[in-house]
Amino acid sequence: MRWTLLPATSFRLHAARWDALRASGPAAPVLDSRFLAALLDAFGGGAELLALCEDDAGPVAAALLAPQGKGRWATFQPAQAPVGPWIQRPGLDTDALLAGLVRALPGCALLAGLTQCDPFLLPRPGGAGADYIDTARITIDRAFDAWWESRGKNLRANLRKQRNRLAAAGTATRLEVWRDAGHMAQAVADYGRLESTGWKGRAGTAVGAGNDQERFYRAMLEAFCAEGRGSVVRYFFGAELVAMDLCIEEGDCIVILKTAYDERVPAQYSPALLMREEACRGLFEAGGIRRIEFYGKVMEWHTRWTDEIRTMYHLNHYRWPVLARLQAWRRRGGTNS
After folding, report:
1. Which residue, 57, 157, 256, 307, is the most exposed by fewest CB within 10 angstroms?
2. Domain shared by 190 and 125, yes or no
3. How far apart are CA 116 and CA 28, in angstroms?
């Protein structure tokens, strides 16, 4: 097997090969070439590399890499990417692939790191690596009413109470789903306005007109929607837009990339959770989707919606084993105890 390193600016030229290799594993829309190309356009610094590994039968592994300092490389990992961009043919030895990669990297590289690995997509090799975060999913394997009955009594009662309170006040709720690429500019603008009502707006990190996040989400969603694989869920109290989800799909999987709600809504209401109940019902009843992925760190509310929790991880490969032992020694505080 041989590694070839190319400027990541050439990524689109190799997108078909990337997606063909990715298709050999589980559906992973966050590793789709359209998602990654939009990431590079918005957040790439110009030094990123596309690494391709091939044998006589074709590609066996690929990655987008970014320099992390002298002698160190890791998967390209902007905050908007939930999973590090590494793909490989199922069943291959990840450590052996990394050993070849670190030798191929420029400047006598000392380290190649895979960040934010999903064990569902890339099984964790022999317990190696470092824990990153716990993340959650919902598997659709029964009718919605049976699944909803399995959720906590408090969750169901709380949302029912909120709906009754809204009805008593004469406030109708409405859920709509936008899937047209031509609507994505407006959708992302609306999302930014919702996100700006909360702490991200105060911190200056919300999606905003003309910023890198706005450019990324608009371009990425337009690309997915052009193929019928993107959606924006919009939820209303009366005429007021109060919550939104940005989503992408592939095969039997949908990923909820971002959720925002209007934090000016009175505290007795949970517009994002009310939206989530109705959106889940729609996915259960439509058929086709079998995995709802949240990614991101598990929050308390996730545990009320699902019991399916798994631990994502980081994986480092050092050029020489002594470097790995030295790093482990440093993590222990430089002692032999």
Report:
1. 57
2. no
3. 14
Check if the beta carbon of residue 94 is closer than 8 Å to that of residue 55. Answer: no
**Whether 281 and 146 share a structural domain:** yes
Q: 272-296 in b/e burial notation, b at 16+ Cβ within 10 A?
A: bbbbbbebbeebbeeeebebbbbbb
Checking if the pLDDT of 332 tops 80, the result is: no
Dihedral Cα 5, 11, 13, 19, nearest 10 deg: 100
Residue 337 has pLDDT above 90, yes or no: no
pTM of the model: 0.92
87-109 pLDDT, tens digit per residue, is 999 999 999 999 999 999 998 88
Q: Specify the number of domains making up the chain.
A: 2
170 and 204 co-located in one domain:
yes
Residue 121 is encoded by which pair of tokens? 């997509």
Q: Which domain holds residue 325?
A: 2-134+311-331
Judge contact between 145 and 314, C-beta under 8 A: no
Which letter, b or e, does each residue of 55-79 get, where b requires 16 or more Cβ atoms within 10 Å of its Cβ?
eeeebbbbbbbbbeeebbbbbbbee
Report the distance separating Cα 315 and Cα 117, nearest Å: 8
Confidence band for 28, pLDDT divided at 50, 70 and 90 = very high
The structure tokens listed for 2 are 């041989």
Within this chain, do residues 189 and 324 fall inside the same structural domain, yes or no?
no
Decide if 244 contacts 259 (C-beta within 8 A). Answer: yes
Alpha-carbon gap, residue 19 to 12, rounded angstroms = 11
Q: Do 17 and 74 lie in a common domain?
A: yes
User: Tokens representing 175?
Assistant: 């859920």
Interacting residues of 311 by C-beta distance below 8 A, sequence separation 6+: 119, 131, 132, 133, 134, 135
Q: From 47, 53, 48, select the one nearest 103 (Cα to Cα).
A: 53
